[in-house]
Every structure is written in C-alpha cells, then in structure tokens.
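Hi C.,

You asked whether I'd gotten around to modeling the 69-residue construct. I have! Everything is below, sequence then structure, no commentary in between.
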Amino acid sequence: MLPPLLSLLLDCAKKTDQSVVSIALGALVHLIEVGGHQFSDDDWDTLLKSIRFVALILLILFFAPLETV
C-alpha cells in the first residue's frame, strides 16, 4: 500500500497547480509522521531522491538570471 500511495503523492507534488502541490505535500508529511516507520529502504530512497530533485530545481530557478525585456 505504501509504495503506490507514496508514488501518487510524489507525482502530485510535482504538478504546476499550487493547490494540488500543497495538498500532496501536506498528505506526504502526515504519511511520514504516521506511517514512516513502515517505509522500506526503497521507499525512503525514492522519497529522498524526489526531495533532492525538487531542491535542485528550486536552486536553479532561484539563482537563474532573470531575462529583462
């Protein structure tokens, strides 16, 4: 049950709709708090890789020079 749910929440967290992202991240945090002890090593690996990916994208976006018109 956890791998499909974790995958769904991670997929939703990568959407462009901020409402969907917010709900998905809130659910993901709750899932970690309540059921994180049931995650397998692969689940944690998937979660941490996804967090790393998002963090790198945010760094690129934050430090990318803005184009002026």
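If it helps when you're writing up: Residues 2-63 form one domain.

Thanks,
B.
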